[in-house]
Amino acid sequence: MKMTEQNKYRLLIGLIVLTILPLPFTSQISMQLFTSAPSLMLYASSVLGYLGIVLLLWMYVLGTKSVIGLYFRDMASVMKLHKWLGTYGVVFIFAHPIAAALAYGQNVILYTFVPNLSTSYEIYVTWGRFALYALLIVWLTSAIVRGAIVYRPWKYIHYVAYLALPFALIHIPTIGTAFGSEKGAKFYFFVATIVWVVFSLLRFRHLFMKGKLSYSIKSQQAATDEIMYLTLTPNQPERMSHFRGQFLYLQMNLLGEGHPFSILQQDQANGQLTVAYKKFGRFTKKLSRQPAGTTIFVDGPYGVFTEELVDYPATPVVYVAGGIGITPFVDHILTDTAEEQWLFYANRTNASGAFAGTLQAKLGDHFVPVLSNDASAQAEHGYMRAELFTKYLRDPHAYHYFLCGPAKMMEVTVLALLELNVPAEQIHTEEFTY
Ligand SMILES: Cc1cc2nc3c(=O)[nH]c(=O)nc-3n(C[C@H](O)[C@H](O)[C@H](O)COP(=O)(O)OP(=O)(O)OC[C@H]3O[C@@H](n4cnc5c(N)ncnc54)[C@H](O)[C@@H]3O)c2cc1C
Fold it and tell me: Potential cystine with 82: which of 62, 65, 240, 372 (Cβ 3.0-4.6 Å)?
């Protein structure tokens, strides 16, 4: 029986919980814990340290998309969990040295932050401090002030997180209070080390293209002023097998950045892939300058957006797209045989909507352009709102809604649909960012 993505996700949460449940028993529990504050603090420090490492390890594992993508297609949910573990799991690591400082009667700030290389014991404690510095930098920039930092500097800072786990693991065997006496603690340490090594090797392997397919640019054309239409030809007989609505990562060179784009179409006969992208920042502007014949590496497919339409091909469906958010819907609209499909297509002007002519030709009066900055065109004007759905649809409750576009448009549209009492499970969204 095919397991749904939701059930896989539940299983994953269950697994994470199972791995942390035995942690209180990895350190010795005795009556002393209830009578001596230092013993209690030492115990807490040990359990918090292991808890932090296990959650950090899960974060690392879930961030390995080359492996996780083999099992989960709903990468957005997994990435949310990865972020959540990063934000909250790390707090246990922060609490670990505080509890240790209190147990040893030391100044919390000095013990936690100031490196000390005076003895071999202190050197190992300092490895732990290095792990803490790395995590603190990543936590502050990712969880606290993420909005204030532009994407690329943030991304490079994020790589500092790779240092945290090895430093944290290195400092355990020599100074870990539980490691010396408890089999459970040793077990956790060795399993964590093995998992870290295996996943690091897998990440390294993926970096050097294992699991990615090589394509060449066949052509690039401007669909609008801002949107490019890119066709890629496979350089090997192997073809990508995908569901419509899925996305892939495009990479311009071996160690370059991978950026996600929805698959517009794939020609089954020759394996050619088409993608439409908006010239927006550094990567997409550089991509738009690449001539025919340039090699592009493709990683994927990922995602589960619009998957329901495969299981229920006759579902009456409403697509709501904003700008380049049209890409996951184009193939569905042009080739699906659903009894009833609508497109509410929000753009600034008539000219900025890619594929508008082709989509209108297929959908006729089920194509509803919504223009925010073009009073002259024959269209709905302004932004997405509840009244548009009641004006065009026979009964707004009868449809499944698929939304893709700018965050603000999606937020307003979801609120409008909920206002019309459309059940939440009939509203499906894809965000173009993690
Ligand atoms: C599932 C999914 C499907 C997408 N499909 C399309 C599509 O079909 N067409 C299209 O034009 N765009 C699509 N996007 C958005 C596209 O990936 C980004 O707009 C693009 O990577 C930005 O690159 P840039 O060079 O234009 O901007 P950059 O200067 O590189 O970055 C600008 C912003 O884009 C975002 N971004 C950059 N890199 C990534 C990354 N690796 N992952 C997620 N966000 C990133 C960040 O928020 C950043 O601030 C999709 C995104 C996702 C998550």
Answer: 62
The CA 433 to ligand 1 mean position distance, Å, reads 6
Residue ranges of domains in the chain: 5-207, 213-302, 308-430
Return the CATH class of domain 213-302: mainly beta
Question: What is the distance between the alpha carbons of residues 379 and 371, in angstroms, rounded to a whole number?
Answer: 7
Q: What distance in angstroms lies between residue 399's CA and the mean position of ligand 1's atoms?
A: 29
Atom of ligand 1 nearest to the CA of 260: 17
Contacts of 8 (CB under 8 A, 6+ apart): 71, 72, 74
Which of 152, 246, 433 for a ligand 1 pocket mutation test, highest count of atoms within 8 Å of Cβ? 433
The residues lining ligand 1, judged by C-beta closer than 6 Å to any ligand atom, are 151, 247, 259-262, 276-278, 280-284, 303, 324, 327, 432-434
DSSP conformation letters of 285-339: HHHHTPPTT-EEEEEEEE--TTTHHHH-TT--EEEEEEGGGGHHHHHHHHH---S
Extract the residue ranges of the chain whose pLDDT is less than 70.
Answer: 1-2, 209, 311-313, 434
Q: Measured in angstroms, how far is the CA atom of residue 345 from the centroid of ligand 1?
A: 20
Class of domain 308-430: alpha beta
Q: What is the pLDDT of residues 125-163, one digit of tens each?
A: 999 999 999 999 999 998 888 888 888 888 889 889 889
Q: What is the pLDDT of residues 307-358, one digit of tens each?
A: 777 766 677 999 999 999 999 999 999 987 777 999 999 999 988 889 999 9
Dist CA 73 CA 303 (whole Å):
5
pLDDT at site 345: 97
Atom number in ligand 1 closest to CA 279? 26
**The pTM of the whole model exceeds 0.90:** no
Atom of ligand 1 nearest to the CA of 302: 1
Tell the residue nearest (CA) to atom 43 of ligand 1: 433
Output the pLDDT for position 434: 59
Residue with tokens 């390294």: 204
Rounded Cα distance, 385 and 368, in Å: 13
Structurally, at CATH architecture level, domain 5-207 sits in: Up-down Bundle (1.20)
Burial letters 104-136, b for 16+ CB under 10 A, else e: eeeeeeebbeeeeeeeeeeebbbbbbbbbebbb
